Amino acid sequence: MTKIGVLGATGLLGTATINHLIEQGVTPADIVGFYRNENKTAGLKQLGLTLRYGDYSQPSFNSDTLAGIDRLLFISSSEEDNLVRLQEHLRVVNAAKQAGVSYIAYTGMAFPNDTSMPMGNVHLATEYMIKASGINFTMMRNSFYTEVILSPEEVQFEVKTGKIFSNTNGVKLNFVARDDYAKANAKVLTTPGYEGRTLELGSNHPYTFADIASDLSSVSGHPIELVEEPAEQIERDLTALGDKNALFFYQLHAGYQDGWGAHISNDLADLIGENNITTPKQTIQDYLK
C-alpha cells in the first residue's frame, strides 16, 4: 500500500490533514506522522497511525527518517531566519530524494511573485529545489490562515471594544480557514491528476476590513468601528485599550498593502468545492457561539 508521510503532524495543519485523510478512506496504518515533540503526539497515537521523530531543523533528519514514504506532505518551516529556513527545506528535499520518495505536496505561498514579503522568495526557492530534485510534486500555494488574520482572541477583543483596527490601507485581503487547506492537502495526496501542478489556493472572493467590520457587527449585534491607521498608532491605541499582545496580527496587515491579497484563483474551489470554503463570517460565528 502507498505510504503517506505528513511532516509537522502534531501541528494544527498537519493534524487536520491527517484527520481528512482518514475521512477520505486512508487506513491509519498507511499514514506516517512526523513529530518534533513526542509530548504532543497523544491524540495522533489514538488514531492508530505510525509516528516517527522527524525534526528537519536537525542534521539527524535524513533519508532514514523518510524511509518507506511514497507521498509526502511537506509543511514548510516556521523558522523566522529565511536562510536557516531554506537550509531546513533543502534538508527535507535531499532526504526525500535519497529515500526514494516519489511525490511531494509542498505548502508554499500563494502568488509569491506578486508580494513584497521576503517569505515569497523562500517559497519560490523551495519550489525550485523540489523541481530540481526530479521528484514529482504539487505546489500547494497557500494564502494566510483566517485564524491568523482573525484570531479568536482578536475577535473577542474587537467585540468588547467596538473597534477593529486595520493597517491595510483598504486593500483587498485573501485568507482561508486552516481546515480548508487541510481538506485540499488530503485531496491531492489521495487523488491522481494533480502531479506537476502549481495550485494557487486562496479564496476566489477577497475581502476588505470594511467587510470584516460589517460581518462582526452583524454577528455580534453590536456596531463595530473600522479604524484604519499605521501600525505605530495601532500599538498606542491597543495599549490604551489594554491589549498589547494583538499588535503582531496588525503588523501582518502591512503585507497586504502591495495588493498581494487581491489576486484570486478558483483552484481551491475546484479542489474542495466552492460551498465548502469557509467564509470570514462563518469563522466569526464559530468564535462567538
UniProtKB/TrEMBL annotation:
A matching Pfam family: NmrA
Q: Which InterPro entries match?
A: NAD(P)-bd_dom_sf, NmrA-like, NmrA-type_oxidoreductase
SUPFAM superfamilies the record matches: NAD(P)-binding Rossmann-fold domains
The NmrA-like domain covers which part of the protein?
3-242
Going by the entry's taxonomy, the superkingdom of the source organism is recorded as Bacteria
Q: What is this protein called?
A: NmrA-like domain-containing protein
The species this protein was found in: Secundilactobacillus paracollinoides
From the broadest rank down, the organism's phylogenetic lineage runs: Bacteria, Bacillati, Bacillota, Bacilli, Lactobacillales
